Write a sequence for this structure.
């Protein structure tokens, strides 16, 4: 039985389920018609172990749980011990399946939820009032800060685009999140990256736009994003000195 985020656009594209990998390294399958389907594994809530989906299931418990998603994403293999739970309050609690569910939920949230997390919204809101005051009291300083914020956003965007692709977000959705059409976003990144965009990605990753996007799409599911130079790049943008008026 699959699970998904509620009331989320495109949620049907990201339905999660748990697979089980046997000690011999295989994931059990079941033939339905001419196709083979991987069996889901459902951890039992009232007793040790769990059950496989389909008819004539394997008579063995998995060695690993594998969170997976309809979009093709798969999380890391998570060791499974059917006897690792404890009895409490009249039921058997085995949190390993819940851990695997949380891994899938983090993936689905990254792919489906565009809302800024509340903690970030609060920090941005606290930052907004001083910006207005700065524009009134020190307009040139405000102009400098406005430029720096634009540069930060310009450098943040390609990292977010790549990570969205890694989570199976389509170009249509990426474009909508950026306030653009699918064609505009795809063209700017995939077909005709500008020299400025290439320079920003080079500064952040040491590679090209194409390399960044290809690595995201081909990343082995469940592995973290590659390291980048965001912290150092942001510090250079914010620490950059503005030449005085008398400098040539």
């Amino acid at each position: 039985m699959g699970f998904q985020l509620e009331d989320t656009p495109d949620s049907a594209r990201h339905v999660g389920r748990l697979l089980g990998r046997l000690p011999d390294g295989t994931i059990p399958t079941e033939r339905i018609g001419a196709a083979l389907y991987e069996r889901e594994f459902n951890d039992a809530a009232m007793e040790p172990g769990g059950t496989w989906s389909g008819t004539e299931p394997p008579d063995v418990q998995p060695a690993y749980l594998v969170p997976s998603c309809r979009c093709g994403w798969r999380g890391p293999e998570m060791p499974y011990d059917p006897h690792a739970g404890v009895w409490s309050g009249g039921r058997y609690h085995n949190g390993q399946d819940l851990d695997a569910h949380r891994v899938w939920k983090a993936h689905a949230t990254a792919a489906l939820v565009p809302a800024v997390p509340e903690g970030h919204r609060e920090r941005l809101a606290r930052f907004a009032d001083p910006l207005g005051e700065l524009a009134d009291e020190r307009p040139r300083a405000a102009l400098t800060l406005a430029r720096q914020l634009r540069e930060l956003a310009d450098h943040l965007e390609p990292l977010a685009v790549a990570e969205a692709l890694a989570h199976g977000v389509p170009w249509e959705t990426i474009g909508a999140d950026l306030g653009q059409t699918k064609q505009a976003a795809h063209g700017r990144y995939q077909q005709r990256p500008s020299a400025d965009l290439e320079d920003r990605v080079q500064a952040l990753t040491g590679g090209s736009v194409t390399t960044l996007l290809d690595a995201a799409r081909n990343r082995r599911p469940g592995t973290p994003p590659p390291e980048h130079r965001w912290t150092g790049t942001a510090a250079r943008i914010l620490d950059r000195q503005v030449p005085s008026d008398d400098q040539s």
